[in-house]
Amino acid sequence: MGRFNFPLFILVFLMAAVIAILLTIFTNWTIWITIILSPILSFFGLFIFSSIVDLFENYNQKTAPQSPQHKITSYFYQSKKPDGLLCPSCNSDKIMEIVYGLPAITKEIEQELDNQKITLGGCMIEQDSPMWACALCNLKFDSPPINKNQALQIVWDVIKDYNFPEEYEYKIIESETIEKEWGWVFFHGPGKLIKTNDFKYAVAGNAPYIVLRKNGRLLDTGTAYPIEHYIKSFEETGDPNGFLR
Ligand SMILES: [Zn+2]
Fold first, then answer.
1. pLDDT (tens digit, 9 = 90+) per residue, 65-79?
2. 97 C-alpha to ligand 1 centroid (Å)
3. What confidence score (pLDDT) does residue 165 get?
4. How far, in Å, from the CA of 119 to the mean position of ligand 1?
5. Quick one: pLDDT at residue 161?
6. Over the chain, what HEC string results?
């Protein structure tokens, strides 16, 4: 059990006290047996408890983790700024990403706001919401349209950070890609699972990504409903999870 810390020490102490009281009430052992036995029993109980916690944590490691790009809001991804992106109006390279959704204002995000790396765009996103804002002249604009290979690269840049063990052969499942007028829906998962059908390689939470053709914006979907639900939601609200908010 690799999690011995002060709160757990208190827990052991409380468990020992409870066991001591129970032993005293329900047995006629001498008080000394009770005093010696209680800490041993409570440590044993704690060991089982933390083993169960470890088991769950190991299970959770197989869940697709949040990408670093996801840190800004729980809803919308940060986009990767294309190299050499300049303001179309004043040519400045001081370009901020407009972040939509409700960000949890952490220190990190405060810093990105202070350094004019990002700016807030409000909690609603629409299909034509611009991605970038110039820090000098305030122009809001989109990056140029992208092709399918660039879209694949955008998704790959996110899933490569998932850091699944290599044997999972985690990849974009290109045969399942859905192409639409407005962009693509990319599915991804462990290649090994597809090849072997061995559920040892199954992962949870690997929701497909939507990438917009007109500006390369990456949008998260979900796994709670069939993909058609998220596509319809995107087409009607501009947000794959718009129905749920
Ligand atoms: Zn500008």
1. 554 445 545 445 666
2. 13
3. 84
4. 14
5. 78
6. CCCCCHHHHHHHHHHHHHHHHHHHHHCCCCHHHHHHHHHHHHHHHHHHHHHHHHHHHHHHCCECCCCHHHCCCCCECCCCCCCCCCCCCCCCCCEEEEECCCCCCCHHHHHHHHCCCEEECCCCCCCCCCCEEECCCCCEECCCCCCHHHHHHHHHHHHHHHCCCHHHCEEECHHHCEEECCEEEECEEEHHHHHHCCHHHCCECCCCEEEECCCCCEEECCCCCCHHHHHHHHHHHCCCCHHHC
Ligand 1 centre from 81 Cα, in Å?
16
Q: Give the residues of the chain that fall short of pLDDT 50.
A: 1-4, 60-61, 67-69, 72, 74-75
**pLDDT number for residue 94:** 95
* Distance from residue 87's CA to the centre of ligand 1 (Å): 5
Residues with CB under 5 A from ligand 1 (ion): 87, 89-90, 92, 134, 136-137, 139
Domain boundaries, the chain: 6-60, 144-244
84 CA distance to ligand 1 middle (Å): 14
pTM above 0.85, yes or no: no
The pLDDT value recorded for residue 61 is 47
